[in-house]
Amino acid sequence: MSLILNSVISLGAMGLLFGSGLAYASKKFAVEVDPRVEAINEALPGANCGGCGYPGCGGLSNAIVAGEAPVNGCPVGGAETTAKIAEIMGQTAQEGEKTVAKVICNGTCNNAKEKSEYYGINDCRAAALVSGGSKSCQYGCLGLGTCVNVCQFGAITIKDGIANIDKDKCVSCGKCLEVCPKSVIDWVPYSQEVVVECNSEEFGKDVKSKCAVGCIGCGMCAKACPFGAITMEGKLAKIDYTKCTQCMVCTAKCPTKAISGELSKRKKAVIEEDKCVGCTICAKKCPVEAIEGELKQKHSVIEDKCIGCGECAKKCPKDAIKMK
Ligand code: SF4
Ligand code: SF4
Prior knowledge:
Elements: H1 2-28, H2 35-43, H3 56-65, H4 78-88, E1 99-103, H5 124-129, H6 146-150, E2 156-159, E3 162-165, H7 175-179, E4 185-189, H8 204-210, H9 220-224, E5 230-233, E6 236-239, H10 249-253, E7 269-271, H11 281-285, E8 291-292, E9 300-301, H12 311-315, E10 321-323
Helix pairs in contact: 2-3, 2-4
One iron/sulfur cluster (SF4) binds next to helix 10.
Pfam families: Fer4_21, Fer4_7, FeS
EC number: 7.-.-.-
Function: Part of a membrane-bound complex that couples electron transfer with translocation of ions across the membrane.
């Protein structure tokens, strides 16, 4: 009986001792967690996609609080998440246009020639290891969908032999850019419709023999652009999206239709007569002389000449021009 009593007392004493020790240690060695980390974690979507470059949402929360990542570091959450995180961090969120991934190749089954047949596993990286893939253009999209498989947001589909990205579903995580063995996916501003859809670095003659819609490096677009938005980088035309007004002059000029943009959707300037004071600023700013009117008289737009660049609307001091 006394043996049982002794055991209970000694076990109880040991329990009390270890319990107090653990309670003391948890207080003494506790790691302080910044409450902002938890708040940011809650604000993040919890997708843990790694698109921010950190190991999951927790990694990004820590990095933001440590000042190592920006408040808009989450590509999935969008503006709403950025605003919440900025508030937690006591900052003002920078509003900017979303940048999305875009396949810069239009080498569809009809447009691009095949040089061989590929019978290996359905993966662009594997296919690229076999003489660069089956397409005769070594710079084009192989269309086997390695980007489709890696996109967690269902934004990519294969259509007519090439990958297509739905810009409304793209969260800019960059996973597709990482896996594409042809580096044929690039970042483009969300509203950018005018894009050189070619990635080839070959001479025009070779491009032409392989693809009906490739950039042949003739430079006609660069010469025609009224805003100096196109430069020739090697044999390929490149658009500076910060300068491009989407006037589509290049789209119309390009002899091989390598530049996207639907001319039928081009906007036109419309002058609201009741607001126009005839200052002539719009006529002076229009790069294609599409505005007519006398000083102190109502001005009007010559619709056939207007390229929809919006330069007049930007400069009108009376806000009398709308792009429609
Ligand atoms: S006009 Fe067309 S083919 Fe010529 S350089 Fe520009 S994009 Fe290339
Ligand atoms: S759309 Fe107009 S502004 Fe933009 S690159 Fe083409 S020609 Fe230049």
